[in-house]
């Protein structure tokens, strides 16, 4: 008998799972052993009915009248999101953004190890960024192999991002977070999440003038 195909969760559900996990981690830090859907939903900023629907997609992990065991639910969401794996990150671009990202404590606390930072500028290569030394982009393949990189963060100008996307794909890195301010052509099999800060600010400005 063949195993069923794993369920592909909707993007909105995936986003909310990260919110539930953040709330559950806070509960754990406070020593809370159990929580209800109402309390968890409030801490995550969602409707309880939506929370119950999201968690039903993962299986039945709550008990009516008793609620959820915090550690068990957090562990299950971690497994669902792939956070029990070893994620080793390379940051491409050692400018202000790349340096700020390399020092972000939230990566390590969520299981993402920043193992390398690379750049093209001769004036930056060889400088220290925290515990890392900026390495040349020309050694990308070597760095990926040495550090077993499986996620890349693009903190480079738009014109450089496309070439790096192809280079990453050629070296087997298929998960990319891009801060490049332009759409990119994505090779088959690669997943790219795009963060456009200017777009987010423009949307925020719109909502500000409407209020």
UniProtKB/TrEMBL annotation:
Highest taxon, organism lineage: Bacteria
Amino acids binding NAD(+): 93-98
Domain CoA-binding: 82-183
Principal location class: cytoplasm
One Pfam family from the record: Put_DNA-bind_N
DNA-binding region: 19-58
Family: Belongs to the transcriptional regulatory Rex family.
Xref: HAMAP family: Rex
Designated name of the protein: Redox-sensing transcriptional repressor Rex
Gene: rex
